[in-house]
Amino acid sequence: MLENLEETLEALGEQDLSRYALANAESLWITFRDVYENEFDGDAALINKHLDSAWALVDAEDRTEAAEMEEEVKSQIPDLDDYDEVYATEWRSAHASAAQNAVISVWQAIASLHSGEGVQNAIETASITESTIDLLINTRQSIVEGDSFDYDDEFVENHQMMQDELARQQESIDALQGDDKDIRKFVRPLSLDALGSITPE
After folding, report:
1. Would you say 186 and 171 are in contact if contact means Cβ atoms under 8 Å apart?
2. CB-based contacts of 194: which residues, under 8 Å, 6+ apart?
3. Which domains does the chain have, with CATH numbers?
4. DSSP one-letter code for 75
5. What's phi and psi for 77, nearest 5 deg?
6. Residue 40 — left, alpha, or beta (φ > 0 → left; ψ -120 to 50 → alpha)?
7. Distance in angstroms between the alpha carbons of the first and the last residue of the chain
8. DSSP 181-197
9. pLDDT (tens digit, 0 to 9) for every residue of the chain, 201 residues total?
10. In the list 18, 25, 89, 126, which could disulfide-bond 106, CB 3.0-4.6 Å?
11. Triad 23, 27, 32: Cα angle to 5°
């Protein structure tokens, strides 16, 4: 996580907290939207629509519709226990979990529009993304290294995929601190290519 993130976010206004949260959530969502559509019965179009609406609501005086949007997105969070097939392989289950996390993050970001707990909602979106990256990196390492795999938090922290995401988050915060409100331009998918191949050694 970015250094002193909570302190940094506490200095931002309510609208900027939502901008940061939405950029985090949408970046994760666009990375795993296809997985979500392929693995689950949820309504990806609804999530896309509510993300667009959420960005439009950031500057609105009346955000009452955010509560309904939040509940509708929450209803789209898949329960992996209902989809046994995603556990067919370790890699498939990791991607299914990542897609689930993406919807949870969108839910948290939309909640930031009306919850009164924008700092915590924003932190949650960052935490979800970083936990997802951790999962993917370690799943890949487990597959490649087999029985010799040993979790290494320093490896995860320094991995290119994690560093790219932290840099993206920092760019959005720097822009907000510079009074740049066009934060959606910092929405971009995770650098999955940085994971490398998953061919076992």
Report:
1. yes
2. 159, 160, 161, 164
3. 7-180 (1.20.1590.10)
4. T
5. -70, 120
6. beta
7. 31
8. --GGGG-----GGGG--
9. 999 999 999 999 999 999 999 999 999 999 999 999 999 999 999 999 999 999 999 999 999 999 999 999 999 999 999 999 999 999 999 999 999 999 999 999 999 999 999 999 999 999 999 999 999 999 999 998 888 888 899 999 999 999 999 999 999 999 999 999 999 999 999 999 999 876 544
10. 25
11. 150
Distance (Å, whole) CA 19 – CA 176: 9
159: closest CA among 126, 191, 187? 191
Question: What is d(CA 156, CA 186) in angstroms, rounded to the nearest whole number?
Answer: 23
Taking the C-alpha atoms of 79, 85, 90 and 95 in order, what is their torsion angle to the nearest 10 degrees?
A: -50
The single-letter DSSP state of residue 81 is: G
Tell me the backbone φ, ψ of residue 179, rounded to 5 degrees. Answer: 70, 25
Amino acid at 30: I
**What is the token pair recorded at 35?**
């997985």
The span from the CA of 68 to the CA of 26, in Å, is 19
Taking the C-alpha atoms of residue 46 and residue 74, their distance in angstroms, rounded to an integer, is 11
DSSP 148: G
